[in-house]
Amino acid sequence: MSSYDVVVIGSGPGGYVGAIRCAQLGFKTALIEKYSTLGGTCLNVGCIPSKALLDSSERYFNTVHTHADHGINVKDVKLDFSTMIKRVQEKVVKPTTDGVNFLMKKNKIDVLHGHGSFGDANTVEVDDGKKKTQVTAKNIIIATGSKPNSLPGVEIDKKRVISSTEALVLKEVPKHLVVIGGGVIGLELGSVYCRLGSKVTVVEYMDRLVPTMDKDAIKELQKALKKEGMNFHFQSAVQSVETLGKDVIVKAKDLKKDEEFILKGDYCLVSVGRKPYTDKLGLDKAGVKVDERGRIETNDHLQTSQSHIYAIGDVVKGAMLAHKAEEEGVYVAELLAGQKPHIDYNLIPGVVYTHPEVAAVGKTEDELKESGVSYKKGVFSYKASGRARASAEVFGMIKVLADEKTDEILGVHMCGARTADMIAEAVLAMEYRASAEDVARTCHAHPTYTEIFKEACLAATDNRALHS
Ligand code: FAD
Ligand code: NAD
């Protein structure tokens, strides 16, 4: 039986990054993954393939719809959907997951393929279907991630009623894609198919899209997606989903009007959140507890009810984001090495990779109001940016929320082109507790979208934006 300093279960961004940091710090480390490829949800069926399809579909959409405005006339544009999907799998996902294998070898991490489950609090059994291997460890990190959730009575048959996993490898472009849930997955994958020519109808329980994000930024996004052709039913609850041959019948109720309505599509994407994945992990044998939502319970140091067993990423509380999982992987490794790591969960940015992109960090206005913090705000529109006009990207705005008295930036909410990349400047500013004026006095290259952030900071600092 092999023994390790650290055994990590699950090779997603939490697990594999945590394993690398453990190895860097001198721990003898093993990584257990049930699938044949490493990288977890993020690299195989999440962040990476979805962004690849978003990129391809945006190219197609622009070629068909917007290039003519720039004087580029392209005739007879044909969509080769199978090549689009093939590119994602063969030229994006495969090299990316292979890259993780390389990193494991480079860092001398033992990779064990098979389903991992606890034998006891220090032993993990790895079952690859043919043989069972046992490993022991001083410390164990559970990084088993999450799986798609569904609604009571709605069965994801993976053919016509699909989750994000199947939506990334469809064989045809749906004629009418009904999306249940107007959250991040629904909007990103809904955008992909809307751009490729599907009719897309989103049914959302709340009164707006991505209800956790800033209302004004989301209003902008909603306008843009409507213009792109997406249809929305808000405050509507799905009651049942049935398949009849190639048709999917979605019955829902408009809660405001108290009226039922029926949508007929050829595919239905269920994107109502994800649930922590702890199936057959044998947590009871190790004495590890889960909470009422099935998440592994952890304290502020990501320790489970067994102090040498840690849990990170989607399987614990907090945002289900790859970069949050990575931060936690590094945190646990450094904690084990006796360092004093720290994660500021308020500074984990969130991004929706639609067009325009929505990106945010820190508090929303609603959160500041709720906690009674006095704040001021500066808003600057993409319309007033020379760079945005040059690139025909005039949709969107950036909002900066700063403390009324100290001017410290408390929240930044962006909707517009390239905000996914630009939010990093806001995160850095907030990490160093910058004031809105600190950013406003920093020289930003012209012409760039980053000037919009600077102008929003100027607007928050005594309302002195220069170009509005
Ligand atoms: P996971 O990535 O889920 O990895 C867990 C791994 O553990 C899996 O490989 C699983 O097979 C393995 N495993 C589970 N149980 C066992 C076991 N018993 N034995 C062995 N192995 C096991 N986040 C972002 O930040 N940005 C994005 O753009 C983004 N886009 C997304 C798009 C989609 C379509 C989806 C579905 C998700 C997206 N996410 C995105 C979320 C992101 O993928 C997750 O937050 C992230 O992957 C969580 O990482 P993790 O390491 O906790 O778990
Ligand atoms: P989500 O939580 O983002 O959105 C789910 C949506 O479904 C919500 O708007 C919710 O109000 C709605 N909903 C719930 N029940 C409903 C019902 N009965 N009828 C209609 N609507 C209903 O979940 P998701 O989009 O499935 O994504 C899952 C996770 O994956 C998220 O936590 C997200 O963090 C992560 N993810 C992140 C990214 C990114 O960072 N860009 C991309 C994709 C996924």
* Largest sheet features: 7 strands, mixed
The termini sit apart by 69 Å
Estimated share of beta-strand residues: 25-35%
How many strands appear in the DSSP assignment?
22
Count structural domains.
3
Poorly predicted runs: none
**CATH topology (level 3) name of the largest domain:** FAD/NAD(P)-binding domain
Shape by Cα distribution: globular
**By helix and strand content, what is the structural category?**
alpha/beta
Q: Mean pLDDT, nearest integer?
A: 97
- The CATH top-level class label of the largest domain: Alpha Beta
Helix content: 25-40%
Per CATH, the architecture of the largest domain is: 3-Layer(bba) Sandwich
CATH homologous superfamily placement of the largest domain = FAD/NAD(P)-binding domain
Radius of gyration: 24 Å
**Total helical elements:** 14
Q: What hetero molecules are bound to the protein chains?
A: flavin-adenine dinucleotide, nicotinamide-adenine-dinucleotide
